[in-house]
Amino acid sequence: MGDEFRCVDLFCGAGGFSLGFQSAGFDVVASVDRNEAALETYSHNFDNVATFETDIRNFTLNMFEEHSGYDARDIDVVIGGPPCKGFSTAGRMDPNDPRNELVVEYAKTVAELDPEVVVLENVTGFLNMHGGQYHEELRETLSEIGYTVQQPEVLTAADYGVPQLRERVIIVATRGGRVEVASPTHRPREGQEPLRGGEDLDPYVTVEDAVGDLSFLRYGQEATQYKLRPLTDYQREMRDGADELYNHKAPNHGKTVRERYDQFDYGQEMSELDEQYQTKKHSMKRWHPEEPAPTVTTLPEDFVHYDRLRIPTVREVARIQSFPDWFEFKGPRTTGGQRRRNSVPQYTQVGNAVPPKFAEAIADRVADHLTAQRIIPGT
């Protein structure tokens, strides 16, 4: 598609959604996020994109036009993943969380930009939060300004070549016609039933498929160069275009922590360990090398590496999210305690992102839709 279609990314974070649409040929012309560290990462990895460090409630059409050099008539697609903590089943699902209002603010911004297609990504809990109120408000707001809102689709990232069993809801709205659901490219391994598609799909990409070439790093070590050759197509794809190894630093865990990590079997959770090794961190789980990873979170200590007595590095988690190795994350690597409320360190940037390969699969179908709409006589 080249730069035939133009896109604006709201709540862009580090840029996973943008990267997927860019890979599908879209020209991403502007991105909005309120967090300085995330936008530092975004600006470092994307050229010629107007970035706006602001709350979406303060983002206006005049700001967009003055800073980007485009006007609303130039925009074909608006994408975005409003902060999902209030909707997540892993959180408190607080209906009074002010972040939940950002979904409606997203729709109001869409009204100003007036694109042909709108794509929203969020956690599956969004559909049922507060009795479905937020989903209904989004649907009504978009419908009132002339969009046809398609039925939400719950998709699994692993079906599209991402080594992660991450489920997300995708909501698409158009000025006319329908954007088709992206067809899966991958399926569970032998002995497992496919969620979608047929027998001719590639098997799921596993954790070891994804990060096996990075597993040489021990606790307390850091590397800026590869030490192992890529052994899978996925590893080769992720390394393409990378001159050095970024964000590959492992914490220096103490002896007690390493002994605890050593008790985990593949796929085992903290609550399954002998009581003497358990902590309050019940969500911690060890990666299984022969399966896709569970959903990546914003907390690095949620997972133990499958082959090393340490948590994964930022680079390894980025691989699980399908960020290529040339994509460098900026800002602090991690923060702890109360600082996590206001800080967006590298691990959080990765965990909050839309997996780029997943986004690209969606973007391909959006491009097909826009192309078809443009060649219909009389349109």
Q: Mind explaining what this structure looks like?
A:
- The chain has 379 residues and is of the alpha/beta class.
- It has two domains: 6-184 and 356-375, Rossmann fold (3-Layer(aba) Sandwich), CATH 3.40.50; 207-352, DNA Methylase, Chain A, domain 2.
- The protein has helices spanning 16-23, 36-45, 61-68, 102-113, 133-144, 207-211, 233-239, 255-261, 314-320, 346-352, 356-375; strands at 6-10, 27-33, 50-53, 77-80, 117-122, 148-149, 153-156, 167-174, 186-187, 202-203, 285-286, 303-304.
- The strands form three sheets. Strands 1, 2, 3, 4, 5, 6, 7 and 8 form an eight-stranded mixed sheet that branches. The chain has a two-stranded parallel ribbon with strand order 9-10.
- The chain is globular.
Notable features of this structure?
alpha/beta, 11 helices, 2 domains, eight-stranded mixed sheet, Rossmann fold, 379 residues, DNA Methylase, Chain A, domain 2
Distance between the amino and carboxyl termini: 19 Å
Highest CATH level, the class of the largest domain: Alpha Beta
- The averaged pLDDT comes out at 90
Number of strands: 12
Residues in β-strands, percent: 5-15%
Query: Uncertain segments of ≥5 residues (pLDDT<50)?
Result: 86-95
The structural domain count equals 2
Helix/strand structural class: alpha/beta
CATH architecture of the largest domain: 3-Layer(aba) Sandwich
